[in-house]
Amino acid sequence: MLENLNYGLFYLINANADSPAWMLTLATIIAKDLINIVPALVVILWLWGPRGQVSAQRQLVIKVAMALAVSMTASWTLGHLFPHDRPFVDHIGSNFLHHAADDSFPSDHGTVIFTFALAFLFWHRLWSGAVLMAVAVAIAWSRVYLGVHWPLDMLGGLLVGLLGCLSAQILWNWFGQPLYRGLRQAYRVCLAFPIRKGWIRD
User: Fold this and answer.
1) Phi first, then psi: what are they for 106, rounded to 5°?
2) Which EC class, in a word (predicted)?
3) CA dihedral in degrees (74, 128, 199, 186; nearest 10)?
4) For the chain, which residues make up each domain, given as ranges?
5) For every one of its 202 residues, what pLDDT tens digit does the chain have, with 9 covering 90 and above?
6) 175: number of Cβ within 10 Å
7) Would you say 85 and 104 are in contact if contact means Cβ atoms under 8 Å apart?
8) Residue pair 10/141 in contact by the 8 Å Cβ criterion
9) Cα–Cα nearest to 62, from 45, 74, 40
10) Using CA atoms, how far apart are residues 106 and 153, in angstroms rounded to an integer?
11) CA torsion sign, 127 to 129 to 132 to 133?
């Protein structure tokens, strides 16, 4: 049943030889480059921001890192326990993005971006989480559209991201504050010079 749904959705979304070149170009940019929003936002949130919000931003960054560690570990484990070929490996649909013929479930890109979006929904602002969730859906669509993933690979990424965020909240409740203080102290020591210069926040 699920496999039939997977195939049906894939054929509905997947591009073909008649797809417009501009759509393929847009999908390729989204599929390959939009994920860079994750490290960029992490760095920005840690180094800059209103003085009264920097502490909360850095705690968010640590929670995101925890969530990603759990979700990516779970993704790697599931990929080995339940291996699934990519569509182009099974010669299904059309492929427009070069990719290694490794296991597709769950999607690493989907896992990362859905974990990130869920983290902002849970721990930041509703609007920022909604924007990032839209980005996540766009990335998920693009990778199915280009033929390197199945739709259920992306659903798997969403569910693993949810697991990562729930686990991160539990871990934060156990030792989050001591970890934050330790990392903040290490940051102050390692980047004392740019902090003194005012280039980045204390």
Assistant:
1) -80, 165
2) hydrolase
3) -30
4) 2-197
5) 788 899 999 999 999 989 999 999 999 999 999 999 999 999 999 999 998 899 999 999 999 999 999 999 999 999 999 888 899 898 899 999 988 888 899 999 999 999 999 999 999 999 999 999 999 999 999 999 999 999 999 999 999 999 999 999 999 999 999 999 999 999 999 999 999 999 999 8
6) 10
7) yes
8) no
9) 45
10) 4
11) negative
**Burial profile 15-47: b = 16 or more Cβ within 10 angstroms, e = fewer:** beeeeeeeebeebeebbeebbebbeebbeebbb
As given in the structure block, the two tokens for residue 185 are 């102290």
Structure tokens of 126? 């509703």
Report the distance separating Cα 14 and Cα 148, nearest Å: 9
Q: Is the peptide bond before 151 cis (omega within 30 degrees of 0)?
A: no
Q: Among the residues of 124-150, which ranges form H helices?
A: 126-145
Q: Cα(first)–Cα(last) distance of the chain, in Å?
A: 54
Length of the chain: 202
Question: CA-to-CA distance for 201 and 136, rounded, in angstroms?
Answer: 29
- Does the domain at residues 2-197 carry the CATH identifier 1.20.144.10? yes
pLDDT of residue 84: 86
Widest pairwise Cα distance in the chain: 61
CA–CA separation, 195 and 16 (whole Å): 52
> Which is it for the CA torsion 177, 182, 187, 192, positive or negative?
positive
Residue type, 167: S
